[in-house]
Amino acid sequence: MKERWPLDVSVSFDKDDRFLENKGLNITRETFPGGHDWTVWRRCIRSFLPQIFRD
Predict the structure, then answer these.
(1) Which of 19, 38, 37, 39 is nearest to 29 (CA)?
(2) Average pLDDT over residues 7-11
(3) What is the pLDDT of residues 16-36, one digit of tens each?
(4) Alpha carbon of residue 45 to chain centroid
(5) 6 preceded by a cis bond (ω within 30 of 0)
(6) pLDDT of 6 over the 60 cut
(7) Rounded to an integer, what distance in angstroms lies between the CA atom of residue 17 and that of residue 21?
(8) Residue 6 — left, alpha, or beta (φ > 0 → left; ψ -120 to 50 → alpha)?
(9) What is the DSSP secondary-structure string of 1-52?
(10) How confident is the model at residue 43 (pLDDT cuts 50, 70, 90)?
(11) How many Å apart are CA 14 and CA 37, to the nearest integer?
């Protein structure tokens, strides 16, 4: 398979999401613009932490 650039990761996400849903898991997919750097990680953490510490 020839790799495209920029890499279309949504295809991989869709496959992963379907796999998890077929296993009965409720999932939420959220993507953030940017690369693999601290600014993106900070956005991810800020979004994710309230979800795991809610009542």
Answers:
(1) 19
(2) 63
(3) 899 999 999 998 888 888 888
(4) 12
(5) yes
(6) no
(7) 6
(8) beta
(9) -PPPSS--THHHHHHHHHHHHHTT--------SS-SSHHHHHHHHHHHHHHH
(10) very high
(11) 23
Paired tokens of 35:
């690369």
Joined together, the tokens standing for residue 8 give: 């279309």
pLDDT at 23: 96
Instruction: Determine the Cα angle at 27 with ends 19 and 23, to 5°.
Output: 35
Q: Which amino acid is at 44?
A: C
Contacts of 40 (CB under 8 A, 6+ apart): 32, 33, 34
Per-residue model confidence (pLDDT) at position 29: 87
Where exactly are the structural domains of the chain?
A: 10-52
**Residue linked to tokens 């949504």:** 10
